[in-house]
Amino acid sequence: MKINPFSSPLLADLYQFTMLQSYLEQGMQETAVFELFIRKLPPGRNFMVAAGLEQVLDFLENLQFSAEELSWLATRFRPPLIDYLERFHFIGDVHAMPEGTLFFPNEPILRITAPLPQAQLIESRIINILHFETLIASKAARSVLVAPGKLLVDFGMRRAHGAEAALLAARASYLAGFSGSATVLAGALYGIPLYGTMAHAYIQAHADESMAFEHFARSNPNNVVLLIDTYDTEAAAGKVVELAKRLQTEHIHIKGVRLDSGDLAAHAHNVRRILDQGGLQSTAIFASGNLDEYRLQTLLGSGAPIDGFGIGTALDVSIDAPALDCAYKLQEYAGKARRKRSEGKATWPGRKQVYRYYAPQGEMSHDVVALEDSDPCEGEPLLVPMMLAGQRIHRTRPLQEIRQQTLARYVRLPESLTELETTTHYPVTISPALQALAKQLDDEAMTH
Amino acid sequence: MKINPFSSPLLADLYQFTMLQSYLEQGMQETAVFELFIRKLPPGRNFMVAAGLEQVLDFLENLQFSAEELSWLATRFRPPLIDYLERFHFIGDVHAMPEGTLFFPNEPILRITAPLPQAQLIESRIINILHFETLIASKAARSVLVAPGKLLVDFGMRRAHGAEAALLAARASYLAGFSGSATVLAGALYGIPLYGTMAHAYIQAHADESMAFEHFARSNPNNVVLLIDTYDTEAAAGKVVELAKRLQTEHIHIKGVRLDSGDLAAHAHNVRRILDQGGLQSTAIFASGNLDEYRLQTLLGSGAPIDGFGIGTALDVSIDAPALDCAYKLQEYAGKARRKRSEGKATWPGRKQVYRYYAPQGEMSHDVVALEDSDPCEGEPLLVPMMLAGQRIHRTRPLQEIRQQTLARYVRLPESLTELETTTHYPVTISPALQALAKQLDDEAMTH
Fold first, then answer.
1. pTM
2. Which residues in B lie closer than 8 A to residue A344 (C-beta atoms)?
3. Using a CB-CB distance cutoff of 8 angstroms, which residues of chain A are in contact with residue B334?
4. What is the CATH class of B14-136+322-447?
5. Interval A226-252 mean pLDDT
6. Quick one: DSSP state of residue B308?
7. CA distance B428 to chain A (A)
8. How far apart are CA A77 and CA B307, in angstroms?
9. PANTHER family from the entry (chains A, B) (predicted)?
């Protein structure tokens, strides 16, 4: 079957189609409002970084069913649903926090306003995109905060969960402040700066390590970063110094060396000394190998002379928190606010806005979650219109610009929220009118 | 740029291309042998289930560079590399464990034999596929083993890491013994059985819960599974009994109810009693909501009358072990065995085979990792030829058949390996000839 798994509308849960069949038969096509939010922060996170909106808008703009997809669906669902899907294009509104916005639990980061079957159909894929990019951007932010001024590169493609995860992890980590990625496709599709050196196999395939270094330098004279831990790290650093002398007349500069195993701090000190004594003060030391923000903090705290880090698996799978407790919930239908009251999973009803307040010096002080219409607040409204009647209302922002704005937002975080090992609760309050609405709906249900 | 991110050969690390440029310039195109293996089991796993080979073979068969991809590369690399890539098609051999094979650390599950630049180019994407599907199949196996005879459904699409992860998690969990998935695309592309009910939004959008149930039943008369925890679970079970009476004359049967929150065991007991007293003994109880193999074991151990489970996030992100310590390493080049000796990451050199031995009753007893040529063993060889000179040598096996064979393999696992909370080391030994080769290479390096 000719189906593009990246964009197929069959990337949905079966219940979306069974519900749609019923909504259509019951004529339930009035306006629904769904909001996406996280219920709580995962352990070890003090804030989240919103990411993935660009892919969501792209998905909504291009959502349509191919002939193959319709004929497959026709073997399982009745003609009225198939006819509806054949003519489907998204006509709803999207309000959302811009990518790179810092946010907290119970704050909607995306609101969909659309006919009920439309808003229901898109549920799973919207969550799938926003959940993952937000997860990775929020993980990446922690490394950015503990290693200011260092080169940080996403090395995680191989252990990311499939093709799209690899690509979007590069995007989300760059958006959150990383310097770039090793994933070539992320460079080609998103213009993300690319970094790369060589694998151990490159060294091993040569009979001699020095010769491997020299071959690599001559073939890639503008990007000479040599992997020096295949056999003996310090001995290899000595070979790098010798090579630099041989290459001097050709004006080939050895940009850096990479350490990938053993005691990185100890090796970095030794290698720095060997390089400096050999006149290679400007050759940088780059480290990789099971790194995460905690190891970065330890390495930099100990004064290890490391200039850049490749962070792979821990970043691309968000290893200490590989999923978020997020939900996409119906908050209003046909003009009436709705509330789910399942045990431990009750939601705040109605169309909401999030207002952010700042201290006089510019630092974030607190947020208020309020009803959009009846509950005016003076803070900065975080949800803004992104798509109206199925049309995007802003041009795609350059990723570099989003990244700069994200970095600027970190500066306004209260300092305790930037620390890795402190759990700090940023104050988010529910407005009185919203609390009253929730109570009113509960009371109505009791007397129903 | 028109690039399909699922199949683009730019889904690679930058260093693959920098190394290729150098290999080509140095004429290093002799035969290389790379093997993929895991270094150690993650905590809480006693064995792994190999999965993803089908997607790897598909990737290798179709690997080629489009005009857009070549022109992007041409802005960064020199003409000889671009010419080479323009003509690229994979001509190597693949030996691998069939999907569903149970395996252990240090056992190669895939071996690539190809000209060095070819074997190097494919590294990252091959790991990306095999790592993820193996991760998920190995996680899924644990639920299958603790819940024999129960309906197990993958519910994880929304929190899987992107589109491909959602799709391949459905495939890998089915291959490992799950009953099916909620992900429609997995049904359309792989023929995986689909299951689905309704969301809370469906109930909330109706003014009345009973009416929601009735509408759903009439719209989906052959698949009436009703979500009963939106407001009050036991009250909703009573409404299901009333509805069943109204639907009786129309021969619409209520197949099941779904619990998604609260104390699932307590609700299941209450609901079972209400359904039975209402004459609905054949209506099944299906549970979901933050489930994993540990909660299944507890629920079933306590005698909770639950017939099936939807397992979502914990499965699709392999939440307790979201990554494996796996590697794809050069073991031979130009006829000579190679060994990486990096601290803590040394490899077993040469082309290897894994032999499995069984006890007389059929139970697995131990494995031996040996050199393929010089080290004949009598056990069952686990690596078999899958592709020769770039051509697949077997037809794609039906997924249902792979699943049946996987289930049959579980029966031969030593019982201690099937327990969730016991860490048991299955014996894997390194053959004397392989140990001798490793020592010989180390000795040569010392005197070098």
1. 0.97
2. 261-262
3. 205
4. alpha beta
5. 95
6. E
7. 25
8. 26
9. NICOTINATE PHOSPHORIBOSYLTRANSFERASE (PTHR11098:SF1)
Instruction: Enter the ipTM.
Output: 0.96
Residue type, A279: G
Closest CA–CA distance from residue A382 to any residue of chain B (Å): 24
Q: Return the percentage of chain A with pLDDT > 90, whole number.
A: 90
Asked if A77 has any chain B CB less than 8 Å from its own CB, the reply is no
- 3-class DSSP state of A375: coil
Q: Give residue B423's pLDDT.
A: 87
CA-to-CA distance for B436 and B53, rounded, in angstroms? 31
| Half-sphere exposure of residue B112: CA atoms within 13 angstroms, side-chain side | 28
pLDDT digits (tens, 9 = 90+) for B215-233: 999 999 999 999 999 999 9
Q: Which residues of A371-397 are buried (b: 16+ CB within 10 A; e: fewer)?
A: bbeebebebeebbeebbeebeeeeeee
- Measured in angstroms, the CA of B34 and the nearest CA of chain A are apart by 9
**Å between A420 CA and nearest CA of chain B:** 21
Nearest CA in chain A to B332: A205
Q: Bridge-partner residues for B336, per DSSP?
A: B333
pLDDT at position A448 is 57
Using DSSP's 3-state secondary structure scheme, residue A313 falls into helix
- pLDDT at residue B197, as a whole number: 87
Question: Which pLDDT tens digit goes with each residue over A150-178?
Answer: 999 999 999 999 999 999 999 999 999 99
Q: Does A393 touch chain B (CB under 8 A)?
A: no
CA A216 to CA B20: how far, in whole Å?
Answer: 10
Please judge whether B159 and A324 are an interchain contact, meaning their C-beta atoms are less than 8 angstroms apart: yes
Query: Would the CB atoms of B330 and A204 count as touching at under 8 Å?
Result: yes
Distance between CA atoms of A171 and A193, rounded to whole angstroms? 10
Instruction: Sort out which chain A residues have CB atoms less than 8 A from B1's CB and list them.
Output: 188-189
Contact between chains at A166 and B128 (C-beta distance less than 8 A):
yes
Considering only CB atoms, A319 lies closest to which of B215, B220, B322, namely: B322
Q: Which of B120, B128, B181, B194 to mutate to test the interface with A (most CBs of A within 10 A)?
A: B128
A117, A29 Cβ separation under 8 angstroms: yes
Give the Cα separation of B338 and A207 in Å (integer): 10
Given this model, what pLDDT does residue B448 score?
Answer: 57
pLDDT digits (tens, 9 = 90+) for B276-322: 999 999 999 999 999 999 999 999 999 999 999 999 999 999 999 99
A290-319 tens-digit pLDDT:
999 999 999 999 999 999 999 999 999 999
> Could you give the CA distance from residue A199 to residue B39 in angstroms, rounded to a whole number?
18
pLDDT, tens digit (0-9, with 9 covering 90-100), for B155-171: 999 999 999 999 999 99
Candidate from B12, B182, B189 with C-beta closest to A13: B182
The CATH architecture one would assign to domain B147-316 is Alpha-Beta Barrel (3.20)
CATH code of the region A150-316: 3.20.20.70
Q: Which of B116, B185, B343 sits opposite A205 (nearest CB)?
A: B116
Distant-in-sequence, close-in-space partners of A360: CB < 8 Å, separation ≥ 6: none
Residue B2 is predicted with a pLDDT of 64
Between A and B, how many CB-CB pairs are < 8 A? Answer: 340
pLDDT single digits (tens) B332-383: 999 999 887 777 777 899 999 999 999 999 999 999 999 998 767 789 999 9
As separate numbers, helices (DSSP H) first and strands (DSSP E) second, chain A gives: 16, 19
Cα–Cα distance, B332 to B31 (Å, whole number): 8
User: By the CB < 8 Å criterion, does B182 face chain A?
Assistant: yes
CA distance A383 to A431: 16
Amino acid at B438: A
Of A182, A262, A445, Cβ closest to residue B343: A262
Do residue A127 and residue B159 have CB atoms under 8 angstroms apart?
Answer: yes
Domain boundaries, chain B: 14-136+322-447, 147-316
Q: Do A14 and B343 touch (CB under 8 A)?
A: no
